[in-house]
Amino acid sequence: MPSFFNDLPAMESYDQIGDASYYKTVPADWNLVMTDVINSTAAIQDGRYKEVNISGALAAIAVANHLGGLDYPFVFGGDGMTLLLPPLGQEGEATLRSILADTANKVAELYDLSLRVAMVPVQAFPPIQVARLRISEYYDQAIISGGIQDAESLLKTDFALPYMISDEHPGSKANFQGFTCRWQDIPGKKPITFSLVVEFQKAEFPATDLRELQDALKRFLGESHPLHLEGIQLAGSEGLKREGKALTVGRGALARMATMLRIRLEQFACVFAKKTGLPLKSGWYDLSRLNEYQMLSSDYYKFDGSLKMTLNADRTGLSSFIEYLDGLEREGKILYGIHESDRALLTCLLHMDSHREVHFVDSADGGYALAGKMLKEKRAARRTA
User: What confidence tens digit (pLDDT) does each residue in 21-37 have?
Assistant: First the structure.
């Protein structure tokens, strides 16, 4: 793969995402891929928030398996993904489109959900800038600014129609190997786990407003990581079945049985390693340190033009922070959406061949999808005011 993303100078902390000097413009010959679960709010209201999260994330591992790694910019939004991909040539892009079409087909087969997918040339948008944040030795997070917000708003308009991917009989199949779903929902140390989406209203890069908001987060919430080692517990049968279905969709009963046997044996090895502390290995993984890996490469705090976070707080701190956000809204500096829960959920992608991984964090029962819905309603109300 072209090394544009890997060659970017790496930020070392979230405090640096407001530093515009780290951002470089995405080459004009790249493509932007976006996925979105249609009517995700209704599915979440039916209690299917885990299925919505999985559907939103599966495109990332399908693309990673096609490209041979996770070293490309992407952002998870709860009910969809944004991916920035290098040029692959006419044949390579046709194969990629086919894989994305098959991803949508398999989401429909697995969960009876419709996944909207579009692949648009980057040059169709205002310049998009990307920075690279080193989260761990296993995960470099993309920080994105610029024309990406135009892309999100245009995905559901007529603009996207020529770029929609809807091949009902794709020639190339999506491979979801590396998707895992082996963790229970995770209660925080504090009573509230919430997902927040903040949209800055300045036309230019919001360096000052972003830095001030980050300072307020620390002031009002203190330590707010949504995960902690004691709260991360292995899933029961339903979680394992959910993973097994995704890995074997379209492959028949025997493949499902063999995969479930492997998953259960791996789960047993994980339990044994965690209880005994023995350094059993699965690929590059030391199974006795599984909980640490989930925190080490967790994706819970991101910027893609909007600030997206899943955090943990007590009621007093969160109420004070919400008052602060309301004040910024009244000043016309931001719009925000928030969804509160009492626990987080993990959707994990492991690319075993490249030693790369990411653990997407969202709040349970709706997370980013419902926070985004609240934000869109505020945006519409402001336009009509």
Answer: 999 999 999 999 999 99
